[in-house]
Amino acid sequence: MKSKLVLLIIALLIVAGFIFFKNYNSIQTQDEKVAASWSEVINQYKRRADLVPNLVNTVKGYATHEKEVFTQVTDARAKVGSIQLNADQLTDPALFSKFQQAQSELSSALSRLIAVSENYPELKANTLYQDLMSQLEGTENRIAVARGRYIEAVQNFNTYIRRLPTKWVADVLGVKPKQQFSVENEKQISNAPTVNFG
User: Is the pLDDT of residue 108 over 70?
Assistant: First the structure.
């Protein structure tokens, strides 16, 4: 009788250990997917930020009296560069919100810069300007795709760590849900600057 009880306890411990390690490994896999998709979001935002100085300088040559707009774009780009958010910090809602706000401000400033440039027909005919605008439009599309992949990876991760028995393993390990783009901020940052060569 005692030996059967000991065997039952050992069997239960083996099953519990198997479940724990299986869920642990799955959490790590999902976490890596989130980190990889976040890296792509950052990569595309960086690409956009790198294009901004060239775009500003090109427009500045034509629109020298639009100093306020140039200052806003430059300040917004600097703010974007000052807020670093790596994959390990994706559980911090305050830092994630600051990051989203900075990206939103850059999008808004770029929209104002592009609106200013619309007033200069000779600028719109400039091949450097056209190339920069084409690259910016492509970057905005890449940002949208990268954000979509991040959203999907976070959704899968957060859903996975909330299901039983994985939730118990996640709680033991201290794994927290990753931050997602909020609807309010998503509306702001999903609007790419208008590109018009006409």
Answer: yes
